[in-house]
Amino acid sequence: MTSPRERINSIKQSLPEGVRLVAVSKYHPIEMIQDAYDGGQRIFGESHVQEMVQKREALPKDIEWHFIGHLQTNKVKYIAPFVSLIHAVDSEHLLKEIDKQAKKCGRIIPVLMQVHVAKEETKFGFLPDELLAFMQSGAWQQYENVSIEGLMCMATNCDDEEQIAREFEQAKELFDMVNGKWLNGKWKVRSWGMSDDYPIAIRHGSNMVRIGSLIFGERIYK
Ligand SMILES: *Cc1c(COP(=O)(O)O)cnc(C)c1O
Description:
single chain; TIM Barrel; 9 helices; 41% helix; 17% strand
């Protein structure tokens, strides 16, 4: 049996320079996160607000907490004081609420826009055309307490590597288009790739992978 920190080290050795690792610790206990932390990992991803708040209270304060799941607007206030990056902004309504809560905390909160490229209907996110329309509208510029830093996506959960590659490639093309057209190249973060598909994601433009089960083992849902 290897420990989380050993698995993180071996994953990190396989990542090209410039690709950051978010260790997705949802549903896993404090002790495992502490082990990864002691091995040097500082970025952890969670997808439930209450769980993230509790873990944050129990663990070292220099951890960067990334919120990676679907975020309900009425819960933004609980993580606004400390969250380092919100990966999955899937509506203007949510962006507006993050801005409002960030202002209350005197912060600028970094976020990513979630783009829906997968075939599954259940996945959240802007469709590519919706994202382009939103950027074109300029509405995002009014939110001064959020800093939009890039895109996040999830590929279809399937075994078809070509399909997965096409979806990541679509996200990359969208990223480049938006970045060139409206951001002057200011966007930096391409968050895609999980335990099962991160090598494909890296070949198709990812520079931030979100890996859970490969590090911490299977999640036990309670
Ligand atoms: C759970 C989760 C992950 C990690 O999934 P693994 O397959 O365990 O690596 C990555 N991204 C998001 C958005 C998640 O919810």
